[in-house]
Amino acid sequence: MNKLVITAVSLFLSLGGAAVAQTTTVTVPGEVRTYVIEQKSPSVTFEGEVAVGTALPDTVEIHTIPDQPDYGYVIVNEKRVLVNPKTRAVIEVVE
Fold first, then answer.
1. 22 assigned to some structural domain
2. pTM for this one?
3. According to the UniProt entry, where is the signal peptide (predicted)?
């Protein structure tokens, strides 16, 4: 019985740690946000909801931001989206 409880508690704690890791917030520099807002790129259509953490498919072209290798951007469904160019994951939907 004690082994079962210890195993259950261990599983719960490990899953809780994974959830915390997924909710990490990224602080985007203001100049990155300003640059993205000023760009006049065409919007691409994406089926589904675009939210933080969504990985964009390879068919979506990610635009680079000068002097900011950790950030890219795309305009998806008429929304400006900051993207991690290495993982293609959405970092922020710019409002």
1. no
2. 0.70
3. 1-21
